[in-house]
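User: Predict the full complex structure for these chains.
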Amino acid sequence: MSDSSTAATTIDGRRAGAATLRWRLSALRGYPIVPIAIITITALVAIFADYIAPHNPEVGLLGQRFKPPVWQAGGIEGHLLGTDHLGRDVLSRLIFGARVSMIVGFMAVIVAGVIGTALGIVSGYLGGWVDQVIMRLTDTWLALPAITFAIFLAAIVGPSFMNIVVILGAVFWTRYARIIRGEVLSLKEREFVRLAIVANCTKLAIMRRHILPNVLNTAIVLATLQLGVVIIAEATLSFLGVGVPPPQPAWGLMLADGKKGMMAGYWWLTVMPGTCIALMVLSANLLGDWLRVKLDPQLRQL
Amino acid sequence: MKRFLVKRITYSVLSLFLLSAIIFFFVRVTGDPAVLLVEPGASQADIDAIREQLGLNRSLGVQYVTFMSDLLRGDFGKSFYYRSPVLDLYLSRLPNSFLLAGVAMLFSLVVGIPSGILAAVRLNGWWDRVGKIFALLGQSLPSFWVGLLLILFFSVHLGWLPSSGSGTIWHVLMPAVALGWVFAAYNMRLTRSSMLEVLGSEYVKLARLKGLPEALVIAKHAFKNALIPVLTLAGINLVIMVNVAIVVETVFAWPGVGRLAYEGIAFRDFPVVQATVVLGGAMIVVVNLLVDILYAVIDPRIRYER
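Assistant: Here is the predicted structure of the two-chain assembly.
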């Protein structure tokens, strides 16, 4: 990515030699380049889906159903990764599916992060019965089987794009609340918080201005680690038919559709979307692990 | 010990109440429960009858008491589709769920424990690295996709195993692997770290000082102690497996409680969906309680913690 473009540019007016290039690349050592690249590319693909996708993802030619990828016998020009049971282009659906996965993934992680961080800070800082109530609630919430709970909620409010985001946020906030509460417990004994109390800051102001910035690192690490979980959850909900409603192209939905052609040997409908999900989740996990070590050594135990 | 028990049991009972309150809250607040609880396509008169029966015009407090007393009596309502009490349906599917979870657990232990021990004994060797990749893949590949790939390979391509259904030992293999896959990776990591801890302990050093061959040290002294956390957590994980199996059961048409929940969604059979969430959560609360008590029995220090 950026390393190949900087290689040809000049430093101090001189052409960067091989040694300089090596030196510059060494700065990248230790960074999770591949996961960052995969997530960046997926994000770009999701943003520019309208320009990149060769076909309309929701419309297909019924005459061209179940065409295999081009390299396989029977594949047709123009459909690089083949077509599905309605003759829709698989590649185009994957590209637009990236949009669904990315938006739902990031937004759900943010919703969960905001709920969990807020509850964690309030619980840890105020202590007493507030802490007791919030922690009991968190424990109980954790006991609910996540996917079944999400399905239950989706069954009540009905499946839609925004509902899925809110549901996943409502299901996955517990981890933030628990861990951030723990951090706040030690933070509130620190000098700067005591000084703020002496300076007559309100509780709200202390939580917002003194505690929140200090737990943000942890929240970001947790969010990255949670991204993979949420993407799998969204794919699962869509696969079961309570996620993103058809005909929108979500990867989980594509897998559900692909199952219909599986016994007939239409492998690409199962392999392609699943590979996309796996790559995204793998990248998010690797990036999260790296961030955890980098930003927050205390979380290494997780 | 008595104080610990009382406190821990109180917490669990409290959790169960909270659990029912959460479910109650979501059902009542997010819309008209009468619409969820009548059969699709019911007339307005039917909806009104349900509303009357549930007392939806009464205060939320009264409604909650009704809801709770129904739950306590094991009354989860009647399934629209099967026309029988939901609890009976659930209990009739439960053995299948435990069978699947049991085989999946067996698979995850058989794969996870030896590979974890090998990774700990040959720390940072190539096997340890393979193990790390395996653990990462375990976290990253959705179980239902693993299931689909297994079907593609073993049923469609090779034609060796049945792609769905139940009845013979062959039917349970693929769903068990798909379900156990994540847990195998988890057990491997847990065995590895537990083994590393034991290998650094005093009694293992002593065993080595006595001049015992390394294989004997590992097999006789380290192995048994390293297994304790793995096997304890296997108990919790078995119950968790039953409750996360919904997608795998759907993929393989395995007749467990997960499949029941899925049918509940597909047929808009709301009482069934509600019951699977409540009972699943209750099961996990109870198992957590049992494990905590077990720990306290084994390790007295835990009893005196906060």
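The CA atoms of residues 209 and 262 of chain B lie 58 Å apart.
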